[in-house]
Each structure stands twice: as C-alpha cells, then as structure tokens.
Amino acid sequence: MHPTPATSPQQPEHRPAPATSGATGTVPATDGGTSIPTTSRPATAQPAAGELARLAAHEAGTGLAPAPVRLGDVVPAPEQVRPDPRADFTLSADTTVRVSPEPDARAVAERLADLLRPATGYRLPITEAQHPELADDIALVLVQQPDLGPEGYRLDVTPTGVRISAATAAGLHHGIQTLRQLLPATIESSTPVRAAWTLPGGSITDRPRFPYRGAMLDVARHFFGVDDVLRVIDHLTRYKLNHLHLHLTDDQGWRIAVESRPRLTTIGAHTAVGGSPGGWYTPADYQRIVAYAGERHLTVVPEIDLPGHTNAALTAYPELAPEGTTPVPYTGTDVGFSYLDPTNAQTYEFVADVLGEVAARTPGPFLHIGGDEAFAVKGAAYTGFVERAQRIVAEFGKTVVGWHQLAPAAHSEGRVLQWWGTDGVDPTTADAVRRGARLILSPGNHAYLDMKYTSDTPIGHDWAGLIDVRRAYDWDPATRVTEVPAEAVLGVEAPLWTESVTSLAEIEFMLLPRLPAIAELGWSPRATHDWAAFRTRLAGHGPRWTAAGIAFHRSPEIPWPTTPADPPTAQVAAPAPRPRTGRG
Ligand code: TNX
Q1: pLDDT tens sequence across 251-273
Q2: 8 A C-beta contact, residue 285 and residue 19
Q3: Ligand 1 within 6 A of CB of 251
Q4: Binding site membership of 420 for ligand 1 (Cβ less than 6 Å)
Q5: Which of 113, 164, 189, 512 could join 124 via S-S bond, C-beta 3.0 to 4.6 A?
Q6: Whose CA is nearest to atom 13 of ligand 1?
Q7: Residues 327, 185: Cα–Cα separation, whole Å
Q8: Is the pLDDT of residue 46 over 50?
Q9: 143-171 pLDDT per residue, tens
Q10: What pLDDT, on the 0 to 100 scale, is given for residue 136?
Q11: What is the per-residue DSSP string for 164-213?
C-alpha cells in the first residue's frame, strides 16, 4: 500500500510529499520570458489558493450528517438493483473475508479489508476458499459468467453475508467500490467509529456502458508529486473510472525523465505557470504511479504533447526549434506558439527516443501524442508529422491516442481521437471515425473540469462556458457528435487542466462533485439517466468525502444532507486529524 498525504479540513494546504525515490522533487522556479507571440485565450488570475482551500474545507465540514443507505444509492447508478428489505446484513467483529484463490482476487480482498478496517476496527481476516459461501462472510468469488463482461460484477446481500461475484478481478474491484458505498458514510473515517455497519439487502447486477472511463490531470502547467497523483487515483477508483491520462509535457514544463534525453528534465522541468515550483517524475516515480494504478485496475495513459505545446522541450533541445528562434522558459498561460520543426530529421529521432522510453515504461496499451493547438504547423506539414508519429507509436507496440485535431491525418490501426469540441457538428472528426477512428468524448462545455462552476468560482476558466454539476451530467456520449455512431465511442474522459490549479485541495475542489457525473455517463445504462435521481444519490457522497477529509465544492444544486439523520449509534468518535494511508 502506498501512502497518500493527509488531507483534513484543518490542514488545507497540500504540497507534494518529499520524494522517496530518485531525484524527483520541486525545484526553484525560473521566471520565463513572456514576450513570445501568442494566440488564444487570456490568462486566468492566480487564485488565492489557501483561501479557496479553507472555503472548501469549511463547506465540506458544515453540518453534513450521514443518512441511511438504500441499495440503489450507488454512484455510478448500477445496471440492475433488486432490493430485499428483509435481507439486510450487518458486519460484525467476527466477519471474515473469503476469496477465490487467484492472486489478483486475493489482492482485491486485501484492499477491501484495508478500506473497512480503520472505521470498523474489525480484524476482517482474509481466508482463501474454494467454496466461500459460509455465514458471516464477505465472499469475493471469481466465476465463469461471460455476461458480466470484463468489468461487471454481481453483488448479493443476504442476512448471512455479502457475496460479490465477477468473471475478473477488475469486476470484483468495482464490486467492492459498490459495497463501500452501501455502508454508512462514516465507513470513510480513518479512525474507529461506533456504528451499525449494515448493508441493505438485495442484489445488484452491474457492468459498464463504455469500456473507457477516465480523467486527465495536467501535471505540466503545475506539477503535482506522486502522492497527489495516487490520491487522485483513489478518487477515480471510487467512481469506477479505469483510465488516468497524465498530461506530462507542455510549454511550461517537462515532467517525465527520459534517460536518452536528460536535458528534458535537467533543463526543461524547472518551471511552471506563474513562477510556481516545477518538478518531474523519475523512472521510479512513474513506476510507482503505474503500479498503484494497476493494482486498482486502472490504466495510465501518458501524453507527450506534440508537435505543439513543446516550449519546455525546446529550451532543452533548441536544435529542434524552427529556424531563427531561440526558446526561453515560459511561465505564462498562452498556447499555440511553440512547435518542433517538422522539416528537421532530428525531430523524429527525438520523438522516437521519447516515445520509445515512455512506451517501455507504460504497461497500458495507449500512448497519447497530443496534437492540439499546433497552430503554426499547418496542412500537409501537420498531417505528415502526425502520420510519422503514429507510425512510431505503432512500432513501439502501442495504440495511438491524440486530441481530435489529429483527425485529418491518415488512419492508423486502432487510433483513438479525444474529442474536446463544444459544437457537435464536426465533419472532420466524423470522417476520421468513418475511416476507423474511435472516440473518447471530453466535450469542453460539459466535461472540462477546469471550467468554473459559476462566474464567481475563484479558480478555473470559462472559455467553454460555466459547468455546474447539472451541465457536467446532462449530455449523452453516444449522440454528442453528429454522424458518429455509438459503436465508435470508446468512452468518456474528464480533463483537468491546471493553469489555475495549484494544490491537491484545488484539484479536489474542481473534481468533486463533477467527476462522479462524468463517471456515471461512462458507466451507467442510459435508461438510468435522471438528474433528479442523480442529485439525490450524489448528495449522500458529501458526508463520505467529509469523513474521508476531502474538501469538495458544495454545489447548491445538490441537496447535501444538513441535519443529523443517523441513529445515535452512528456518531463519529471525533477523529483527530492524522496522516493516513492510501485507500481505494
Ligand atoms: C485547451 S484542450 C487546451 C489546453 C488548455 C485548456 C484550458 C486542449 C487539447 N488544449 O492546452 O490547458 O484548453 O482549458
């Protein structure tokens, strides 16, 4: 288990924890020149980070009380819920966790016990069992049941126990996230709480609508250390997301060490927006992230943004810059000014060196090559570059992903375009889909978590409009882009760009409560889509986040519980703030 940093309303300032491996860390910022020609949108004023975090913490801590949980109170909404009010089950100090003998199933059982032990104080011993259906058990069982698919599960709560069955460990993993949500909110406490740990009786059968459900964290504009990333993975996992896209490189900083190109980090990693400290991931750091993600059945999608958004790389390797330019470090927020020279043969050696190393260190199938906002590389120069980069990715055995600007380039086997448009009429993207591309949907005006909630949200952008929770929820991935059939939609992703986001508390403020809305669009059958029901289910998560020490945005659209609704047995035993281990 990897530690994650303490987060409590009393300690709203989060800085990356000191590196435990290699040379990662923050480095003093170098103020860059800002006289580079610019296109694009105005810079966002720097937020009062501490103030925002205090506000969020205050909001998160005001009078929220856990409410009784019903079987259908799960986010994302399950495919099928059959309550049986006579079949509730209550955990006891004698409850055991029985699990199929396969090591990946056992690992899920261990994570479940890690999740439940702190608040319950129960031992929850894990035993392997070929026939794990005894009384007073939580049983996690691998079964041959093809209709559950690669990520589905079935959960049965009977008076004698809870059984989760799935065809894969990933299915069991999603099942334990549901189990966790069916317990009282105080299950999220890091210290023992006296409560009746009752699960509502009945059964749930569940599997995802789309195979790709993700979020993106921009670690280039501001750098976030490994512990922050692990904590974000925990949040994704709760809502059954299965991909974390890391935007690793941009004009303001290069964040991943590449051994064959050392200057990328010795020179290119030292800056961030607004003079904030830079930083980068060593190979060991990156390994920690992909391993932690993998244990949670989550795939890391690394992005090396090419050929634009490359100012930091160009400060390290100026020979790749267009003739006549001398790149200087950049800490502003404009886009579209930098690019690798597509006419220079060395550019492709560089691209192969970088993508080769990143591919070798990435267990997942995807390699994201960016491709957005390379305004100065036009027409055939752009498509020619993209086609070469796509071939390089294929040579390293990976499937290419890129922003939908890649669309005009020739198709390459399996390629995936990430659509961040706001107008669903996009014939160029639709044409790429006809030629074989699949889409990840990140519509800027619904899924961009760097957009403000309301005009007075203290951080974030508004170029794609304001995105309150309802707007994040109210769209359909299957019909969002005209002439793109549902079968071409691989899934959804919620990107968080961080020009104005400087701390973990601010990440959480922008993620929650909108991330669960996007997660539900990716997981739940369309038939369950219902704003009134969603906002009520989501409301129950406020007390969970509070119990877990997560400072979220208390959107007024959501009917957060404000009165103590729990029986007296469910009082929190005033947990003292203290560091906790990673959970999820
Ligand atoms: C557009 S979305 C960008 C990013 C910015 C973001 C800010 C995309 C592919 N490019 O470079 O950070 O807007 O919202």
Answers
A1: 999 999 999 999 999 999 999 99
A2: yes
A3: no
A4: yes
A5: 113
A6: 497
A7: 52
A8: no
A9: 999 999 999 999 999 999 999 999 999 99
A10: 82
A11: EEESSHHHHHHHHHHHHHHS-GGGG-SS------EE--EEEEE--SSSEE
Q: Are 170 and 298 in contact (CB under 8 A)?
A: no
Residue 425 vs residues 401, 433, 488, 494: alpha-carbon distances, Å: 21, 13, 16, 20
Whole-number Å distance, alpha carbon 253 to ligand 1 midpoint, is: 15
CA distances from 315 to 33, 243, 267, 346, 375 (A): 12, 31, 7, 15, 19
- From 368, 373, 466, 501, the mutation candidate for ligand 1 (largest count of ligand atoms within 8 A of CB) is 373
Q: Please indicate whether residue 450, judged by its CB atom, sits closer than 6 Å to ligand 1.
A: yes
Residue 487 annotated in active site = no
Rounded distance from Cα 450 to ligand 1 centre (Å): 9
Q: From the candidates 373, 499, 508, 520, which is the catalytic residue?
A: 373
8-22, 207-221, 415-429: the lowest-pLDDT one: 8-22
Residue bearing the CA closest to ligand 1, atom 8: 372
Burial class for 274, CB neighbours closer than 10 Å (0-12, 13-18, 19+):
buried
- What are the tens digits of pLDDT across the range 99-154? 999 999 999 999 999 999 999 999 999 998 765 556 689 999 999 999 999 999 99
Quote the pLDDT of residue 134: 61
Q: What is the mean pLDDT of residues 227-242?
A: 98
What is the bridge-based pairing of β-strands 399-403 and 416-419? parallel
461 close to ligand 1 (CB < 6 Angstrom): yes
Task: Tell me what pLDDT residue 67 has.
Answer: 53
Q: Give the whole-angstrom CA distance, residue 416 versus residue 401.
A: 5
Is there an atom of ligand 1 within 6 Å of 493 CB?
A: no
pLDDT per residue as tens digits for the range 476-535: 999 999 999 999 999 999 999 999 999 999 999 999 999 999 999 999 999 999 999 999
How far apart CA 211 and CA 490 sit, in angstroms, is 6
Residue with tokens 């993209």: 386
Q: Whose CA is nearest to atom 5 of ligand 1?
A: 497
Q: For residue 478, give the DSSP letter.
A: T
* Average pLDDT, integer, range 168-194: 97
- For residue 403 and ligand 1, the question of a CB distance below 6 A is answered with yes
Measured in Å, residue 497 CA sits from the centre of ligand 1 at 7
